[in-house]
């Protein structure tokens, strides 16, 4: 097994959350009398949620009531409708069966823990870092370095998997190899590997499908 420690992003990597997030965001904008396209909203979300909020706040002079409304609606929608990407459950289980370890570093709060538990994945993860732990946001490498130190992880045995440039940059800033989940997008030049399905990750981390 080439990479024994897999650090995962959550949104858009482990779980297919963007369709739900962008749809709810669009619904709340419409409540405010604002018309946007899902594709445009999604283009900002794929940079980061902070980037999304800043853009639309400045463009439409939104106040905190907008973001509170969005958060309330999206949490319920995600818990009811979010699903892992195809092959994620089996891949995370196979990593563990082969002696590897999985970790999550996400900017979302502990709501992520409930969705992970809902799909029976909690035992697959050695640690899940959420916003509640107050690490600096990506691309800062602080949370990644914390995992390396806490679990005595050699840098050459770890890889981070994410769908955004900030995920890849966070790992690069910590000295790790990276895998970009493109999901139909173009490869990211700074990433060491690019995949379009999680079946491709078996070869990269060098484990066989059981």
Please summarize what this structure is.
The protein is of the alpha/beta class. The chain is built from nine helices and six strands; from the N terminus they run E-H-H-H-H-H-E-H-E-H-E-H-E-E-H.
Folded structure, characterized:
The radius of gyration is 17 Å and the shape is globular. The protein has a six-stranded parallel beta sheet with strand order 3-2-1-4-5-6, sandwiched between helices. The chain contains nine helices and six strands. The model has no long low-confidence stretch (mean pLDDT 95). The protein has helices at residues 18-31, 38-45, 49-60, 64-81, 88-97, 111-118, 142-150, 165-173, 201-205, and strands at residues 5-8, 101-105, 125-129, 158-162, 177-181, 193-195. Helix 1 packs antiparallel against helix 4 (64-81). The longest helix has 18 residues, at 64-81. It has two domains: 5-16 and 85-205, HAD superfamily/HAD-like (Rossmann fold, 3-Layer(aba) Sandwich), CATH 3.40.50; 18-81, Orthogonal Bundle (DNA polymerase, domain 1). The protein is an alpha/beta fold and 210 residues long. It starts with a strand and ends in a 5-residue tail after the last helix. Helices cover 44% and strands 13% of the residues.
């Amino acid at each position: 097994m080439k990479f024994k420690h897999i650090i995962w992003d959550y949104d858009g990597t482990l779980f297919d959350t963007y369709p739900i997030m962008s749809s709810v965001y669009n619904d709340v904008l419409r409540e405010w009398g604002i018309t946007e396209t899902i594709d445009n909203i999604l283009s900002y979300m794929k940079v980061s949620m902070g980037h999304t909020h800043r853009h639309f706040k400045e463009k439409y002079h939104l106040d905190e009531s907008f973001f509170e409304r969005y958060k309330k609606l999206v949490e319920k929608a995600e818990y009811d409708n979010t699903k892992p990407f195809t092959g994620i459950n089996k891949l995370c289980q196979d990593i563990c069966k082969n002696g590897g370890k999985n970790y999550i570093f996400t900017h979302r709060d502990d709501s992520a823990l409930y969705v992970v538990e809902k799909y029976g994945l909690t035992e697959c993860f050695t640690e899940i870092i959420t916003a509640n732990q107050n690490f600096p946001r990506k691309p800062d490498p602080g949370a990644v370095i914390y995992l390396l130190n806490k679990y005595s992880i050699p840098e050459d045995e770890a890889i981070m998997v994410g769908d955004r440039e900030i995920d890849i940059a966070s790992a690069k800033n910590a000295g790790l190899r990276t895998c970009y989940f493109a999901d139909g997008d173009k490869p990211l030049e700074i990433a060491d590997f690019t995949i379009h399905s999680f079946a491709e990750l078996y070869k990269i981390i060098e484990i066989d499908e059981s």
